[in-house]
Amino acid sequence: MTDRVENILRDYFTENAFKPGDQLPNEFEMAQKLNVSRNVVREALSRLRMLGMVESRPRRGMVMAQPDLLAGLEKVLNPLLLSQDDLKDVFELRLVLELGVSEILFARKTPEDMAELEEIAERQKGLAVLTKEDEIEFHGKLYDMTGNETLHRFQSMLAPVFDHVFAAYYNKTSKSSKLEQVTHYDLFKVLKEGTAAQFRTAMYNHLAVYIDSASSR
Amino acid sequence: MTDRVENILRDYFTENAFKPGDQLPNEFEMAQKLNVSRNVVREALSRLRMLGMVESRPRRGMVMAQPDLLAGLEKVLNPLLLSQDDLKDVFELRLVLELGVSEILFARKTPEDMAELEEIAERQKGLAVLTKEDEIEFHGKLYDMTGNETLHRFQSMLAPVFDHVFAAYYNKTSKSSKLEQVTHYDLFKVLKEGTAAQFRTAMYNHLAVYIDSASSR
């Protein structure tokens, strides 16, 4: 029942072209119009509030709001709950993003960003083993450089699932030397002096051990 | 208050390593344990039910479930509600996916899939103008070929926002001849006879008009 009312409400908002900030009818009016109980309306609105689609304003009641694109996804990216297929899909999704982001990086990189990336890559050159935090620092900086907030947040949400899948299924295969052939520092150099196409190739080689795992599933 | 209880419940499930199928305490027990009203618990559970994290089973009450990864995102991908920044982020996200998917396509393509793709590309060669449906048919088949259900559904969810952004902001610039240089049929040929790297380049040229728009924002 709540599912139905939630769908009806979303359709109603779309059909009436409600925009963020627009005043919504109150719970009582909605319940009457839809001929359902106020409890059901309250539950459906609570769901929409979770997604950021509606919010309560003091003395104005409920208004339409700008939803949080990734709020729903963020809540379910729990390795313990997802199916094996979903976990592998998410694993691949991160690889696809890393490989696809090259053009935007080349279009947007600034000297300031490159200086910061160099500092990270330079520092990591001295480390025998890179931790998860090191990986996140370098790759996170790349996403930061895209200027695409959604992409940045999306990939950082995928990271724990990615690590979980890699640890669970693929870690038995020796982390081949392929992975070491292209380092973070190498990636930095290509981003600085190469082309978008060269960077895509370098990123492919950097991620080769993961891509091989994914392709052979 | 419901936000807080929703978070507490999710943390509680994680800390106790609840897996899909596991029986959950009933509303009454949860309300007592958290010292909140049953209405608040019911609202929080309704949110989790929307995400597919919990479900009601006849005679068993509430059990843990396998969440629907993209359910939350799907509900908010409404061009009328998203901010301009979010819209542009989603526009780019689709481009990133199209460019990044090459390796997986080459690893997974089958003769049957290629025959189907050829049939589509061959038929579209005869058309003067490609409609949205034609675009979806060709690019959707590519995602279908990845065998990654999440990626496939994700990109088809992004399509309406992508079209909205392109129509609203970029259609004034003449659809340059670049777009025509690499056709769906050309993409098919490269996928059949070329390499993953060549396909990435061909896809880049196919999407050049969009990528130019995105880069210059």
TrEMBL record, chains A, B:
InterPro entries: GntR_C, TF_FadR/GntR_C, Tscrpt_reg_HTH_GntR, WH-like_DNA-bd_sf, WH_DNA-bd_sf. The keyword DNA damage does not apply. PROSITE patterns: HTH_GNTR. Keywords: DNA-binding, Transcription, Transcription regulation. GO terms for molecular function: DNA binding; DNA-binding transcription factor activity. The keyword Transcription applies. CDD domains: WHTH_GntR. Pfam families: FCD (PF07729), GntR (PF00392). Residues 1-67 form the HTH gntR-type domain. This is GntR family transcriptional regulator. The lineage of its organism: Bacteria, Pseudomonadati, Bacteroidota, Cytophagia, Cytophagales.
